[in-house]
Design a protein that fits this description.
It contains four helices and eight strands, in the order βαβαββαβββαβ. The relative contact order is 0.18. The protein is α/β, with parallel strands linked by helices. The N and C termini lie far apart (36 Å). It has helices spanning 43-59, 79-93, 120-132, 161-178; strands at residues 39-40, 64-71, 99-102, 108-113, 136-137, 144-145, 149-155, 182-184.
Length: 190
């Protein structure tokens, strides 16, 4: 079980994946993993998974929250190292069916199946706390750095995948600018 609770389906449950889902697509099904979640770095794979998840959400009765996470600038430290550490922390803390992808050089995209709109702010706060609860040990320097992050979330709905990512990105920037560090997309951010 991850930090977000028990999944609704169990291993081996027969879940309708929908006509448009590619073979092997899994949405919100607990998986047996040896070690942390994998962190994807393939943009095509990320977009394909998000599109399949969007189709699953469109069929009804399931939710998914997409979160974009970026470290705030760190003087004297490479953002890539901080993003790698954040990805490692998420990979060790999230549910077996959540998805983590590198999104460019300095961001991560996290897909969280079965997170309802009313739960999203609390879930994002927990993601925030995973990063900020302990300092980062930067390789080679022996320094402990406090890293702050900004997170933006958008609930998956009828928008195209790129627009969904853009909404989460805009929410992240709004959270950064407001000082709250977390923000859920709403139409007033357009």
């Amino acid at each position: 079980m991850g930090i977000f609770g028990t999944p609704r389906t169990q291993v081996g449950a027969n879940v309708n994946q929908g006509e448009n889902a590619p073979a092997g697509f899994e949405f919100g099904e607990r998986q047996d993993l040896n070690g942390p979640l994998p962190v994807g770095d393939n943009l095509v794979e990320m977009v394909q998974w998000l599109e399949s998840a969007r189709n699953k959400v469109a069929e009804g009765n399931v939710n998914c929250c997409v979160v974009v996470c970026a470290p705030n600038p760190i003087e004297g430290a490479a953002l890539e190292l901080a993003v790698g550490e954040i990805a490692d922390r998420f990979a060790s803390s999230l549910r077996s069916y959540d998805k983590i992808y590198r999104h460019g050089r300095d961001k991560l995209l996290v897909a969280l199946p079965h997170v309802k709109p009313e739960e999203a702010p609390n879930v994002m706060q927990r993601l925030h706390d995973i990063v900020e609860r302990m300092p980062f040990k930067m390789p080679g320097s022996g320094l402990d750095l406090s890293v702050t992050v900004s997170l933006g979330g958008a609930m998956m709905e009828g928008s195209e995948v790129q627009e969904l990512i853009n909404m989460a990105d805009r929410a992240m920037e709004a959270g950064r600018l407001s000082g709250n560090r977390t923000c859920i997309w709403s139409p007033d951010l357009a």
